[in-house]
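Supplementary notes for students who missed Thursday's class. We covered one full example, reproduced here. Read the sequence, then the structure, then the short commentary at the end.
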Amino acid sequence: MKICFIVVLVCTFFISPFSSAAEPGDRKIDREQLLEVFRETNAGLNSQDIDSIMNHFDQDAVVSFMTTVVGEGKEGIVAYYNKLFHEENAPLKDYQSTPSLDGPAIFHGDTVTAHGRTDDIYTLSDGSRYQFDTRWVATAVKKEGRWYVVSLNFSVDPFDNIVLKEVGDKIKVVGILSFLAGVVLVLLGLLIARKLISKSS
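Structure (token representation):
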């Protein structure tokens, strides 16, 4: 799904409110820098500027998409983005995401991790729309004074999502239609049998 959800990741780090007390000054600066990364990434997303988004990803970053496809490195991530949106017969037309954070980002020296969820709306090339409650986990590292995303993972509940529900609804409809067709066939069989019996008698 749209690499735009990548914005989600960044959002994860940055949207959490700053701790007003007992937070080292350098961490406050780090959070401000991460917030700026989010803003720029979000702007790139809204303008469909994938290069602007990738500017905040490490060269060897890895993204695990909801489709189970893994994009390795910037080239791999961009290639999959283009496959989803720009190549011939691309499945996606649009993607909108509303991210949220489960809690404040956790710092481990020059590494930060965060996790949360996103309310995603996917518009397919045929105009149909699907909404997913997506979970994500992201990691970023600080290099030469800048923060870069190095890992991002997306997942959905395989037992509770709109696609599964839609398939289930279709199976129910097919089951009902099959039952009705069976009833009709039985009735026709009985009518034919009665006619044959009446003729033989």
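Commentary. Residues 44 and 179 are 52 Å apart (CA to CA). The beta strands are 57-64, 70-72, 92-101, 106-108, 111-124, 129-143, 146-155. If anything here is unclear, bring it to office hours.
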